[in-house]
Design brief:
The complex is a heterodimer of chains A (173) and B (67).
Chain A: H1 2-49, H2 54-64, H3 70-82, H4 88-99, H5 107-118, H6 125-172
Chain B: H1 5-27, H2 31-63
The chains are: A mainly alpha (173), B mainly alpha (67).
Keywords (chain B): Membrane, Transmembrane, Transmembrane helix
InterPro entries (chain B): Spore_III_AC, Spore_III_AC/AD
Transmembrane segments (chain B): 7-26, 38-57
């Protein structure tokens, strides 16, 4: 009886934890999209107003931005700074492909970032500004979608985890 | 009465749980999954009582001598 109780509690806690992890992903994605937006604003300031070269701009943005996404900028800086013959677009894509798995961002966000890289750093200021405006619009759209998804799924994941745990325990008893 | 009362309580618990799950899923706009959980609940309960049902049928058969 005693062992049974303990294992039932373990099962419920485990499934509840799984539910919480799933719901945490949604919260985290929204947060990271917001941070990404801020980082792009920083990058725009660096490029348009301070007129820094891209590697230096990337380095400074990487220092200032959130810990989950700073690696994208830091890696781009490292690749560009090591001067091993990557173009900016290739460096940007490589940094995104290496680091996106560690964040909660999904493939749609990745597409937006890669599209952004296609115009990064080889046209005049006006075009750069347009490019940034486009990214802002897309990121705002993604934020809205992420918020809706969070509203829809966060509570469901949490309660579903606990309830499925209880169901397993009842069936096993 | 050979059947333990535990089974009835178990089935009742599963019923309550499935109805709560149903509500949660419908509230978050997933009617299809809600339907699936209901079906899964029914199947689980059926598996629990299938032994008893088959017992009942054999009893009926022996009662009317239908071998």
């Amino acid at each position: 009886m005693f062992v049974k109780t303990i294992f039932s509690i373990i099962i419920i806690v485990a499934t509840a934890a799984i539910g919480y992890i799933f719901s945490y992903g949604y919260v985290q994605r929204l947060q990271q999209l917001k941070n990404l937006y801020l980082s792009f604003q920083l990058l725009e300031t660096e490029i348009i107003y301070s007129s820094n070269p891209l590697p230096i701009a990337m380095e400074r943005v990487g220092k200032k931005s959130n810990k989950y996404i700073c690696n994208i900028f830091n890696d781009t800086y490292k690749i560009l700074n090591s001067k091993i013959g990557y173009s900016i677009e290739e460096a940007w894509n490589k940094a995104i492909n290496d680091n996106l798995m560690k964040t909660s961002l999904n493939n749609e966000d990745k597409e937006i970032l890669i599209d952004f890289g296609k115009n990064l750093g080889f046209t005049d200021k006006e075009n750069q500004i347009k490019n940034f405006q486009l990214v802002y619009l897309q990121l705002q759209k993604q934020q809205k979608i992420a918020e809706q998804l969070k509203m829809k799924n966060e509570k469901m994941c949490k309660s579903l985890g606990v309830l499925i745990g209880i169901a397993i325990v009842i069936v096993l008893i | 009465m050979n059947v333990s009362v535990d089974l009835i309580f178990k089935i009742a618990a599963i019923g309550i749980l499935v109805s709560v799950l149903n509500q949660v899923l419908i509230r978050s706009g997933r009617e299809e999954q809600a339907m699936m959980t209901t079906l899964v609940g029914i199947v689980v309960v059926l598996f629990m009582v299938i032994q008893l049902i088959s017992n009942l049928f054999t009893t009926v058969k022996t009662m009317f001598q239908l071998y």
